[in-house]
Amino acid sequence: MIFSNMVLIPKCKSRVILFLWLLGIIALLNGSAVEARIRRYKWEVKYEYKSPDCLKKLVITINGGTPGPTITAQQNDTIIVELTNGLLTENVAIHWHGIRQIGTPWFDGTEGVTQCPILPGTTFKYQFVVDRAGTYLYHAHYGMQREAGLYGSIIVGLPDGKSEPFTYDYDRNIILNDWYHKSTYEQAAGLSAIPFQWVGEPQSLLIHGRGKFNCSTLTTPSLDAGICNATNPDCEAFRLIAVPGKTYRLRISSLTALSALSFQIEGHNMTVVEADGHYVVPFVVQNLFLYSGETYSVLVKADQDPTRNYWITSNIVGRSAPNTPPGLGVFVYYPNHPRISPPTTPPPPPLWNNTDPRLAQSHAIKARQGYIHTPPSRSDRVIVFLNTQNTINGNVRWSVNNVSFALPHTPYLIALKENLTHVFDQNPPPDGYDFQNYDIRIVQENRNATSSNGVYRLNFNSTVDIILQNANSMSNDTSETHPWHLHGHDFWVLGYGEGKFDMFNDPKKYNLVNPIMKNTVPVHPYGWTALRFRADNPGAWAFHCHIESHFYMGMGVVFAEGIDKVGKLPSSVMGCGETQGLYRP
Prior knowledge:
By secondary structure, the protein is mainly beta. Helix content is 8%, strand content 36%. The chain is built from five helices and 34 strands. Strand 24 (403-405), helix 4 and strand 25 (450-452) form a beta-alpha-beta unit. The longest helix is centred in the first third of the chain and has 19 residues, at 11-29. The relative contact order is 0.12. Its EC number is 1.10.3.3.
């Protein structure tokens, strides 16, 4: 007999038990003692009347709420979402924004690219692994449903035993949004109309689903006297309760339909520590600039006068929107009453047309020491995407290299995997534009473009550089900020610049030492942004402007890579186009 953990055990079993005990110790040292979990969610998506900014309208909810439920998990957990489409007359699909879907490209949730839409009355099961800790999002990826309220957060923690390179006392989550009173159908009809009808600026800004529209400004009398009610609890201001002296990690995300935003907490500094799931060299801001699809973590210490409360504000930047009021919330110092408003007026916003501080923030975001993923020193292919506004047969469209994107009826992933070459254009879109002769600062004389649903085929495991080049729109002296989001990958942000990208000299300025990795990045007015990524995730992946109306109008592309390495497609993603009759729930 021998001793093991103070229990007498037979010698014949002692070696096995000792071996298992040692394995447990090794697992603890590796931080992997707890196995990855399966997190299950059952959601029903449907339309309900809500008043996020005090005006009642139809909103898409998940289990009755918007924003939808927050998915909380740990790194390497499996997420299973059983989604029932209760919209009755409308399809749906949900994209898991920032989740790379390694091994499950068919669950990326992009209708027309990776799956057929989920039909009314049916239930679809998404199943995927969250392989990296960080702050991510989910949202509708069918038509323009995202801006109807179908969105939420994904918070992925580190495995047990692992720690982050910063400390805080409490963790909070805030999604910023803009809000329109017209339905997505009305907006889409205007965007497709001749003459063109622009969606205009949003009526409100929401802070985690809550805003305040001035009901007295309604110009059209309503048959329903209560359609706009400033006392509706749906539109009570967002409040964050803070204990004096404590430090808060605020996970701040933007899912705006159009607007670039600034975010600030009156009288408080914010230290930026994470961007799109990657740790950054900490830097301090009073205003945090966010573009649609981006996520950040900031640290805020409740170190101001605790006898009063403070404003939380969001404001539009990059566009003139004088009729859109700021989003307002309250940073409440405990034990002050949460309904007591701050004694001050909300702090003034940054100048909407001053790009300098926004460009400075972009330059400041670098990978934190100890968490640097060094990029390849050179690329195998360079693709330059000129962002322009054009016309096609009288319709106003957004284009890339003079080609406006259109989705096929059969999703790309299915068509590529099953070799259905006739369902989309086999001619590759252009890798560049007339660099020598194109003037990015003027309205072009020839504004015509073409439409295509062709794809960019990338060699598997190759390194690809993308240069996003901004230009003048079809209005004089107007160049818009475009936030570009890549599905299925993170990319290195190698640099930003003003004016036209110089393919001979600007690459010499790339940051190859500590570039941040992101999945969404802005290209600033009349400027360029340089990205690098590895085409190492088999599948078909969208890369597009994250402004709802711009993608709807054709501002996007699709990359295909390693299709021969994609596993057997589940029949649940089929049922549309050439796959009709193949759907199995």
